[in-house]
Design a protein that fits this description.
Belongs to the IS21/IS1162 putative ATP-binding protein family. InterPro entries: AAA+_ATPase, DNAC/IstB-like, IstB, IstB_ATP-bd, P-loop_NTPase. Residues 98-231 form the AAA+ ATPase domain. By secondary structure, the chain is an alpha/beta fold. The chain contains twelve helices and five strands. It folds into two domains: 3-62, no CATH class; 64-244, Rossmann fold (3-Layer(aba) Sandwich). Strands 2-3-4-1-5 form a five-stranded parallel beta sheet. Helix 1 (3-12) packs antiparallel against helix 2 (16-26), helix 3 runs antiparallel to helix 6 and helix 8 (151-160) packs across helix 9.
Length: 245
């Protein structure tokens, strides 16, 4: 008799997970054997799970991760030099709490972007804000933002997100504006937030890509000195998959 009014009130209060659980319970004859405490526990558990799932979905939408990658699917068998112990430690996320960075380097196709996205997905699951950006597209977007009034807002977003993933770094030398923008981003993040950067180039070549020695020293000081390192090698995983197919 009270079923429909109760459902209406639960939905009106935004307790949709609890409402669904309540509807399932009243439709199940065995639920009559549950105590009041058990009923309440089941309703609260469903509401908590529903809210957690919605928050995770929102974080993943904001993150815009390039790959649907999760740590549970990481391939440690491929001969690419991935240190399993190190990566398992990174999955734990303590380095994000410590505001450290991570550099993932290696040739094309060895899974740099995929691994970065897997760590990003885990960070989302751990209730951290994440944002994925391809570096060439990011610099193009920043250049446009200088002219259309979005620059300050975009810089705030890039500076405040808890984990920023900068993918495909070093594909081309930086111009003066890109150097300035990158330094501003890293200055806002240094010691406060964490950054993952992936590159086909070894860290030793990054100074030359940045160009201006003064900017290069400042950028690398903020990016590399507190960075964990994953140096991958081997053949392209994509090429190997095509051979198998």
């Amino acid at each position: 008799m009270l079923a429909h009014p109760t459902l209406d009130k639960l939905n009106a209060m935004g307790l949709t997970g609890m409402a669904k659980a309540f509807n399932e319970l009243i439709s199940n004859g065995e639920s009559e054997q549950l105590s009041h405490a058990e009923w309440l526990g089941l309703l609260l558990e469903r509401e908590w799970s529903s809210r957690h799932d919605r928050k995770l979905a929102a974080r993943l939408r904001f993150a815009k991760l390039r790959h649907h990658a999760v740590p549970e699917d990481v391939d440690y068998r491929s001969e690419r030099g991935l240190d399993r112990a190190l990566f398992m430690k990174l999955i734990g996320g303590d380095w994000i709490d410590a505001h450290d960075n991570l550099a993932i380097c290696g040739p094309s196709g060895v899974g740099k972007s995929w691994l970065a996205c897997a760590l990003g997905h885990k960070a989302c699951r751990d209730d951290r804000s994440v944002l994925y950006q391809r570096v060439p597209r990011l610099f193009a977007n920043l250049a446009l933002a200088h002219g259309d009034g979005r620059y300050a807002r975009l810089q705030r977003t890039l500076g405040h997100v808890q984990l920023l993933i900068l993918d495909d770094w070093g594909l081309e030398p930086l111009n003066e504006q890109a150097r300035h923008d990158l330094l501003e981003i890293l200055e806002d993040r240094y010691g406060r937030r964490s950054t993952i950067i992936t590159s086909q180039l070894p860290v030793s070549a990054w100074h030359e890509i940045i160009g201006n020695p003064t900017y290069a020293d400042a950028i690398l000081d903020r990016l590399v000195h507190n960075a964990h390192r994953i140096d991958l090698s081997g053949e392209s995983l994509r090429r190997n998959q095509r051979r198998k197919s």
